[in-house]
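Hey,
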Amino acid sequence: MDSNTIIYLVIILALAVFVVYLFFNMKKEKGGGNKIKSFNIGEEKGTLASQQMQLQAYERLTLLAGRIALPSLISRVNQPGLSARDMQLLLSQTIRQEFEYNMTQQIYVSADAWNSVKSLKEQNLLIIHQVANALPPEATGNEFNRILLEYLMNDPKGTLHEVVCEVLSYEAKNVM
């Protein structure tokens, strides 16, 4: 293993540990610690409208986590005939676009929830780049996708999107 691979693995592990920590920390604190704060809408605090906006934000971020989960992303954007490098760029670009499209949702959710979504995005980008760097220059997009999916099946951090979805679901239930 070269030093870049070790650095990538350490970063991915740190991100995964952070998200898991957030999830278990929120489950442990059933009191007010990680409760969602009410927002001012008009003159009333904690109105039904603000609650509805928060729930919609959690819904959109859960959808985002599912859309940038690498297995679903690969099946959705796969284009036969691409090189591994082109597929790497397409996957990375799609993740960034999806994330940027939903960036405004952070104002409606807790910092922990938003950080878990950001960690998922960063972890997926790191995995994509790590696998791409391990491939020969002449590799095809299909080979890249196959190796990427095999890597995810053999790596427990490959299901980080499920943990993020659980964090978002837990917080959304606290809003209701």
